[in-house]
Design the sequence.
């Protein structure tokens, strides 16, 4: 979705139409036709690629792949891999806020990865953290209390280390680019072995990305506007398009919708 928005802006300017972000109401809104949306707008729970479009607008990962498929820092400022290839340490960017105004820090990263490691977690990324030190013990439903998780260590507010028992060549990509980071503050009711509090809010995304969700319903889809708390200096310029709408569009009528101007792209 991020690449689509960038290419759309370039395309508009290339054909000398009104540029993205102008005062013209039509050009300041991009309407995307998508076959369906389920409303699962959580980066650790979505499974549909259409819901993934919404997630990409709202959230950021520690690292993101550029147009040349090279991993670049996003929420992370930098990272280092230990000589024995068992640990990856991320230095996080400072001054970044979630769309609700709360500060982003290492506790949010720790929280995100602990939820995915929770024994009650049933999302698509359940296997991502399985090689972290202490995972088997942490992921045990028989635990009466939340155990220590040595594989995830918050060093300070803006430094976090992931450690595996054995050297692995995929650790960096697994922790930098598998899924985006959620806000610990948003899920105050979450308790170990009970991820219901996280699942209950999958239709209320709060991220660090360039857009915030304004409205969602199954009939009209999801609408987004620019995130006033987006840290352009830290994360990039964002997008000139003011509003984005992801509209459910049936395959049987999608070309008519496109021709009529009800949607801009499929």
Sequence:
């Amino acid at each position: 979705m991020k690449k689509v928005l960038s290419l759309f802006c370039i395309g508009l300017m290339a054909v000398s139409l009104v540029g993205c972000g102008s005062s013209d109401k039509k050009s300041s809104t991009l309407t995307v036709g998508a076959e369906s949306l389920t409303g699962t707008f959580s980066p650790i729970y979505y499974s549909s690629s259409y819901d993934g479009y919404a997630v990409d607008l709202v959230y950021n990962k520690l690292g993101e792949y550029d147009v040349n498929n090279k991993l670049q820092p996003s929420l992370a400022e930098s990272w280092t891999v230990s000589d024995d290839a068992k640990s990856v340490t991320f230095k996080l960017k400072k001054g970044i806020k979630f769309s609700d105004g709360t500060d982003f820090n290492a506790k949010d990263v720790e929280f995100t990865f602990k939820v995915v490691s929770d024994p009650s977690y049933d999302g698509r990324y359940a296997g991502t953290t399985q090689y972290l030190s202490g995972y088997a013990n942490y992921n045990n439903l028989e635990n009466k209390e939340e155990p220590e998780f040595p594989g995830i260590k918050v060093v300070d507010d803006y430094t976090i280390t992931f450690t595996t028992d054995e050297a692995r060549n995929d650790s960096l990509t697994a922790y930098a680019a598998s899924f985006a980071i959620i806000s610990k503050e948003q899920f105050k009711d979450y308790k170990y072995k009970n991820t219901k509090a996280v699942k209950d809010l999958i239709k209320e995304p709060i991220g660090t990305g360039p857009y915030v969700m304004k409205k969602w319903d199954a009939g009209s889809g999801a609408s987004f506007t620019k995130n006033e708390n987006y840290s352009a200096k830290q994360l990039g310029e964002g997008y000139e398009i003011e509003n984005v709408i992801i509209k459910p569009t049936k395959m049987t009528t999608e070309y008519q919708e496109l021709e009529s101007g009800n949607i801009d792209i499929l």
